[in-house]
Amino acid sequence: MDGPTNPMVTPLLTDLYQFTMAYAYWKAGKHNDRAVFDLYFRKNPFGGEFTVFAGLEECIKLIANFKLTEEEISFICETLPGSCEEGFVKYLRNIDCSDVEVYAISEGTVVFPKVPLLRVEGPVAVVQLLETPVLNLVNFASLVATNAARHRLVAGKSKMLLEFGLRRAQGPDGAISASKYCYIGGFDATRWFSNNVAAGRLFGIPLRGTHSHAFVSSFMSPDEILERSLHRSDGSSTCEDFVSLVQSWLSKIQWAKALGNTVGETNQSELAAFTSYALAFPNNFLALVDTYDVMRSGVPNFCAVALALNDLGYKSVGIRLDSGDLAYLSGEARKIFQIIEKEFGLPGFGKTSITASNDLNEETLDALNKQGHEVDCYGIGTYLVTCYAQAALGCVFKLVEINNQPRIKLSEDVSKVGERILCRHPFNESKRAYVVPQRVEELLKCYWPGKSGKSSEYIPS
Amino acid sequence: MDGPTNPMVTPLLTDLYQFTMAYAYWKAGKHNDRAVFDLYFRKNPFGGEFTVFAGLEECIKLIANFKLTEEEISFICETLPGSCEEGFVKYLRNIDCSDVEVYAISEGTVVFPKVPLLRVEGPVAVVQLLETPVLNLVNFASLVATNAARHRLVAGKSKMLLEFGLRRAQGPDGAISASKYCYIGGFDATRWFSNNVAAGRLFGIPLRGTHSHAFVSSFMSPDEILERSLHRSDGSSTCEDFVSLVQSWLSKIQWAKALGNTVGETNQSELAAFTSYALAFPNNFLALVDTYDVMRSGVPNFCAVALALNDLGYKSVGIRLDSGDLAYLSGEARKIFQIIEKEFGLPGFGKTSITASNDLNEETLDALNKQGHEVDCYGIGTYLVTCYAQAALGCVFKLVEINNQPRIKLSEDVSKVGERILCRHPFNESKRAYVVPQRVEELLKCYWPGKSGKSSEYIPS
């Protein structure tokens, strides 16, 4: 999941008041006071029982590269209310995170409310500058990873989950972050490219593509197709008129008694679009079958093209449904595929993949499961990437210690395996319980040791 | 509102299927078919009656700079399922938007459902490549501009509105887009910096800063303050011990009969923080007064520092409330300010600015209005920038014409001023009405003429 630094993430991705405070700390001679801040949230999102912690890697990159440019320093000084002193400019020039230490739970861990996910120690003025970008990077990353994990739980392990959200995401980078953290949360692929190179390339996320309704309606009839030849998949020979081959298969389907003569005339614009797409991608034929009528046109047209491709040694990928009753339509399409497998002797055709999209979310996935369906793969967009059910996670970054003086005091008893210990609720005295730990694990590991030279789990390049 | 191009917005900010379709169009010899696509939405967001159209400038920048790099072309060809032909690579190298024309409603206009906001004409393969980024750029921009406008309507014209959302926004650019389009939608300022240089600098948005709760709790007592001197605002003399001056004002407030002896001991950590902040920003003293107790500590401490500043010729900005009953607390604080104005003879002190923050949204602003309050300025974060009440706008980009063949047909009657005309609903025959137009205005203007050389309203540099 490594990748280039996000160009949006710089020391100026912060609230102005972090710099006004830095100036006030500096004026008071307090800027190097040693502070400890904890990052945590108070409530799991989506009314749920867990959160997936994400965004750590980007935080560490920010910290590793934290250095103000001369241009940024001039802008800060212009922007601070009133004039700022030359000594402060010198101080800003020398700021970096070499005196900062970061301890965190590892990225992708399931976490719970009120438990520190990230602890940042260092000079109070510098750590305050980190507050806003760190919250920005963790809040949405964890929210969308959690949302993806929740969709994965409802869909089940065996289904393929694709992220379809670019067009409705909250800005270009809202989309890029979403794509990366959906993958962490258990998605299989995204359908879109991304900045400079690609979300796929950027984070190593697989890409999946097909075509749109506009592609279907942009065709009028198969007569439009000029280049009609297609090599066999093994290269041994060439079919000179693939369009006719498709049409002959379509009539076989229309006359097949096993299909009960239910297939009449199909839409020719759609047939032309499918045929063209198959000529371009004979190894990856995935057809959107609901532009006109799924069962009377889309599925028979798909089957005709798929059977013609099969003649030339190509295996089709499947169909996509983007509207209607997905449970019913997927079931009906599956029946047709199974009949065709039997009728025309095509082993495996009954298992042709069915992808469903169209404003899917946790509730619609759950409803599909309850109704019974034949969908193999889901494309999930808006509800996933915008976290529509709850658009923000409320992580906070709280000062817990300054110059070794606690500002929030929690128990720091050292626990041992096998010993009965009394656990107290930090804020509610009446809540307490005895537990006997079977295993004791440090939740926070060092991810950025600063120049203190402590051993580090992860130092980015 | 001009600014540099967003580095995230490149031709690869698109769905993979736009490139698989481009290849299929090219294979079928259809890639240069002349297509017309309309962008519109079906329903106003937030259950409302209007939408503010935004994102156009960024779309035009994308279109003006639309050119694939060699690196991007190699990635596309690697990623397309199966192999892509050399002729297609040559085609990709030559793609730009010189044959594309863009007509649009101007940015910031109030718009309604089912009305085309943007019409893109050009070679079908190129216009399809634009679909996803254009939707991404318009959907969130229009959503957040609408959300900002709705908050402005509830808050009223006279209030100052600040955007506070960076830490909870959907990724760094979710924040940057939000900040820009909140300003378009009627906000006064943002409190944060941004990429490379700054949201402020990037878009010319004013910045406002203060301090946080952590700043307050990082101080122990005024004894910590080492540098205690402060020049008078006119530079005529220097107060050698501003800390003592503040303390003498605090006792005057504590003993003031007009305040009913209600002020007891205030929090010394808070007093130290306010004093330090005032020493750093004597011309811009804005204090967060709710870390401990607003009425017993925060407001009296603020007044003591503000009165000391006044002695030296400085006018304080005001207070910020970030918790509690904002209607009640703002009213009580206003009373204190008015009493102090009278008691100590400080004209204008009664009008000291009160800023409120803390998870504000349309409903809480409305509730405050109904209760009556003394807030002058609102800082609005999460609910604003994530569009919490509805996290996505569903704009679509529909093929309406190909090679002059309509794919959706709407009336194109030319209307004249003063003539009675029959208006029909496009989809519901029974809905119709006679109207007499008083003014006829072209909704769509040309924003990108391509090389056709038509006059253009706006061509970006």
**Average pLDDT rating of chain A:** 88
Briefly note the CATH topology name of the largest domain in chain A. Answer: nicotinate phosphoribosyltransferase
What is the number of independent domains of chain A? Answer: 2
The chain-level structural class of chain A is alpha/beta
Which pair of protein chains has the largest interface, and what are the residue counts?
A-B, 109 and 109 residues
CATH class of the largest domain in chain A: Alpha Beta
Query: Which shape of chain A, going by the Cα principal axes?
Result: elongated
Helix content of chain A: 25-40%
**Biggest beta-sheet profile of chain A:** 6 strands, antiparallel
Q: Which short descriptors sum up this protein?
A:
2 domains, nicotinate phosphoribosyltransferase, 461 residues, homodimer, six-stranded parallel sheet, alpha/beta, TIM Barrel, six-stranded antiparallel sheet
Describe it for me?
Two copies of one chain form a homodimer. With 461 residues, chain A is α/β, with parallel strands linked by helices. Chain A has helices at 16-27, 56-64, 70-79, 86-94, 124-155, 171-184, 199-203, 213-217, 242-255, 268-280, 294-311, 326-343, 362-371, 382-385, and strands at 34-40, 51-52, 101-104, 110-111, 118-123, 160-163, 189-190, 230-231, 238-239, 286-288, 318-321, 353-356, 377-380, 396-402, 405-406, 421-424, 432-435, 445-448. Chain A has two domains: 16-151 and 392-452, nicotinate phosphoribosyltransferase (Alpha-Beta Barrel), CATH 3.20.140; 209-375, TIM Barrel (Alpha-Beta Barrel). In chain A, strand 12 (353-356), helix 13 (362-371) and strand 13 form a beta-alpha-beta unit. The first copy, chain A, is elongated, with a radius of gyration of 29 Å. The interface between A and B is large, with 109 and 109 residues. Chains A, B: Its cofactor is Mg(2+); Mn(2+).
